[in-house]
Write a structure and sequence with these properties.
Layout (H helix, E strand, L loop, with lengths): L3 E9 L3 H10 L6 E8 L3 H5 L4 E12 H14 L9 E7 L3 E2 L2 E2 L24 H10 L11 E2 L6 E3 L2 E3 L2
Length: 165
C-alpha cells in the first residue's frame, strides 16, 4: 500500500510559485497556496506597526518518498536552516482521494488518534456545501480557508510562461 504525506511549507511572500514549479519538475504535481501573516518579536517594529510579515503556506500531497525528497531539496535550495527563511513539515495522510490516486476503504488501519483532520480543496463557492456535508457525516467543526490551487489540470502556458490560477 502506498503511503502518502502532506508536505507543508511556510515561506516568504513570493516564494510559493517558485516552490510549486520546482516540485512539478520533481514529480509532485499540484498544490495549494494559502496566504498568511507571520509576526516578528520586536518592540520597536511593533511600535512602528511593522511587526507583521506576509507569508505563503504551500501544501502538497504525494507519495511519502516524493515528499521527503522534495522537502530535503527545497530546504537546501531555500536555505531554510537560516532564521526567517521558512519552515517545512509533513503530516501523514490517512486517505487521499483525487488527483491520480484513490485509496481503497478496505485498506484502513486501526486508528489510534483521538481526532482526524479532514482537508478538502473545492471549487470556489462550494466550501459551505462541503462543510455542511462533513458535519452531516459527523465532523464537529470546520474552517474555510480561501486559497488558490495549482493542480495538474489547472496549469497552462501563455507565451512560454506558466500561468497559475
Amino acid at each position: 500500500m502506498k503511503r502518502f504525506e502532506c508536505a507543508c511549507f511556510v515561506v516568504k511572500h513570493g516564494w510559493a510559485s517558485y516552490l510549486l514549479h520546482f516540485a512539478r519538475e520533481h514529480d509532485i504535481f499540484g498544490g495549494t497556496i494559502f496566504y498568511g501573516t507571520g509576526t516578528v518579536k520586536s518592540s520597536l517594529l511593533r511600535a512602528l506597526s511593522l511587526d507583521r510579515v506576509e507569508r505563503e503556506v504551500v501544501i502538497m500531497a504525494a507519495e511519502k518518498k516524493y515528499t521527503r525528497r522534495i522537502m530535503e531539496m527545497l530546504s537546501q535550495k531555500l536555505d531554510m536552516k537560516k532564521e526567517h527563511h521558512g519552515i517545512a513539515f509533513s503530516m501523514p495522510v490517512k486517505v487521499y482521494i483525487g488527483g491520480v490516486h484513490r485509496e481503497d476503504e478496505d485498506n484502513e488501519e486501526e486508528d489510534e488518534n483521538m481526532y482526524n483532520a479532514i482537508t478538502l480543496v473545492t471549487e470556489k463557492g462550494k466550501a459551505e456545501e462541503a462543510l455542511d456535508a462533513a458535519q452531516d457525516a459527523g465532523a464537529t467543526g470546520g474552517v474555510i480557508i480561501n486559497a488558490r490551487g495549482a493542480g495538474r489540470h489547472e496549469k497552462s502556458k501563455f507565451m512560454f510562461m506558466d500561468i497559475e490560477p
